[in-house]
Amino acid sequence: MKYSRLNWLSSSQRTETTPVPAQERVFSTHLPVEVWRKIIGFTVRLTGATTIELDDPFGTPHLHEEHPEIDFGLFHDRRSLSLVSSSWHDVVTEISAEHIVIYSGEQLKSLVKKFESCKDPNKRRLGDRTTRIDFKILGDYNPQAAVQLFRCTPNLMIYTNKNGPSDHPTHCTPIEVLNGLVTHCGHSLRRVEWSGPGETPRFQDFAVFCNSLPNLVTLRLMSIYSYPLLRDGAPPLIRIPSLKTLSLGIIPEPPFHREQYAITWDPFLQYLSVNSQQLPALERFECDLFPQFTMSFFIAHAHKLRQFRTTTCFADIFLPEAVAACSNLLELVLVHGPEVVAFPQYHPTLRRICILPAIDVEVAVPHKIYEHAVMCPLDAILRTVEQMIAPRLVEVRVRNSGAFVDIVDQTVWLSYWWRRWNLRSIEFTDKAGRQYRDVQDCKSSCICIVSLLITPISKRCIA
Fold this sequence. Notes:
alpha/beta, globular, about 30% helix, two-stranded parallel ribbon, 14 strands
């Protein structure tokens, strides 16, 4: 995750910028505005404005733009460059409008006022340039102000909602907001995401909303605020014709019980399993809470999947059946912790497997704890994968990030596994796609490697 700007000065080096006198701006005339626009864009543009797909676990980590981290020095740079000249001010304003992040109700009202009054030199509305809006409002806001903003941004492609607290739902997405998105941006929206649980939609509203988005490609949810009860009647049948990626996160438990709130994805997936034409274009499915009681979803849609991601601690004994139903699967992504998981014995089309750490932040623990809590489970799942018959498998990737970041220091262990996979012509790679062969420790003796081949790490952990 990153933002695409040139870090000309570190935060400690930045000083207040004053307007530059006109006679000192001669340098800016040496290049046409189009060239300066590209240069300025590298400095002030927040990436991800047109990133429709979610991060690819097999992609290059430093190119991730799914949720770009925002260095608040970016706003300082925007102000500084805006003071150079009127033409630079216009360029910075236009680029800044492409991807908007809203943190408060007051900022939302200010943006609406600016967009309703501002036009660029080409008489094009400023909001016409906006392709992505991220809502991250912790407090209250006026839903009608959001609707006004959508009216000003008819080319919006990405809507993300992370309003409210990050650990539990507090209220549902206002119906006015959903209706406003459909009315003003329904045909342009390609990606919709509730990346936090604070303000998620009611299922009835969600169904009507999704049925009105013919070009939606990517959908991510952290939870559903409420499901209809029997007395409410059946909700509309959901059909999303262009959806390729469906991502379902780990649902947080609310502070108090609510009858209409579910802490599993089973009811949601049951509504999507009525027939296989509800998601005719589905290719990628992520479900961090494995739907243990809804294999009907896999019966209806698994044959379409090219990539499937789940978490081993929730998949338990159900993973072999689910993967077997994915008859055309190419990539399997497993978020793995200390659990023992069942694995399919055979798959005819699987080409790549990626193993991610269940803890996605770096951890510092004593060596023995690290070996028992991280290395032993990782070694165990690699041995389980090794036993599977997969004639088309070409890569096994272990992402050395989070809890796995220090596996690069386990050079003898990496050499052992690289040799075993290499015997089958399968690449054993890190998060960047580099083979672990390249991180072998030259100081490690051949005796250590032979000893490791004889004594697996699982046995050493028990000892």
